[in-house]
Amino acid sequence: MESIRAVFFKPDPQVQVRKCNQLIRQNTRKLDRDIAQLKVVENKARTSIIQANRRAQRNPSQAKQAAQETRIFARELIRIRKQSTRLVTSKAQLNSVSMQVTEAFAVRKIEGSIRSSVGIMKDVNSLVRLPELMGTMRELSQELVKAGIIEEMVGDSLPDELEDEEEEAETEVDKVLGEILQDRMGKVGVTPSTPAPVQEQPVAEEEDEEDAEAMLDQMRGRLEALKS
Q1: In this structure, are residues 127 and 94 in contact, taking their beta carbons and an 8 Å threshold?
Q2: Nearest of 106, 96, 116, 150 to residue 13 by alpha carbon
Q3: What number is the average pLDDT over the span 111-128?
């Protein structure tokens, strides 16, 4: 029935703008949730770096292993921050799309016609490639095509500009470690020197290593879940 009506009647502008706004709000809420989750993972990565550094100070025999762990967690932290930055940028683009869509429908109401927007097309092209929003952004692009705000569907052959997974430069890792560990030292005034337990058994050391590995796996799992 809807397809028959679409042949003989133009889409209702009020229905179209409500649908577009609904999809934009849905995507905005999704981005807000993902940004908040990344903040939690980032804090866990910072804590893991501090704990590994503390363990190295308490147990010289674990210094090498702990140093490796701090660098692994620092690389994960760099990836988390880059992904978070990408999502914040995407949210700004989505807000821009929302304002431009509202303006386009307002012009249509006044002038009786609507003009396609290159700006909206550019932002939608970028957002539709974001894994976190791909499905709903395609639906939004369809609604914008129907309304005449963009001229064509977003294609699948656009270049992939998402974050690569290559190893970060060692200088960037050093910068992150310096930021976190020096910031912590500044807050307490001196380098932590918490005395080691009276009986530091090898079993406890093994458990610390297992906890670090489990924490790293958990952070990577959350990152992959956010990307999927």
Answers
A1: yes
A2: 106
A3: 78
Dist CA 104 CA 20 (whole Å):
12
Report residue 205 as tokens: 């050391």
Q: Is the pLDDT of residue 30 over 90?
A: yes
Residue in the structure block whose two tokens are 């702990």? 66
Instruction: At 180, list the tokens.
Output: 């976190």
First CA to last CA distance, the chain:
35
The domains located in the chain, with CATH, are 12-152+162-185+208-227 (1.20.1270)
Query: What's the CA gap between 87 and 136, in Å, rounded?
Result: 15
The conformation of residue 162, written as its DSSP 8-state character, comes to: S
pTM of the model: 0.70
Look at the alpha carbons of 83, 85, 91, 97 in this order and tell me if their dihedral is positive or negative. negative
Q: Residue 192, by phi and psi: left (phi above 0), alpha (psi -120 to 50) or beta?
A: beta
Q: In whole angstroms, give the CA distance from residue 56 to residue 206.
A: 14
Q: Where are the alpha helices (DSSP H) in 59-133?
A: 63-111, 118-127
What confidence score (pLDDT) does residue 200 get?
Answer: 43
What is the rounded CA–CA span in Å between residue 54 and residue 100? 51
d(CA 95, CA 63): 47
Euclidean distance between CA atoms 149 and 118, whole angstroms: 9
Residue 36 in this model has a pLDDT that exceeds 90? yes
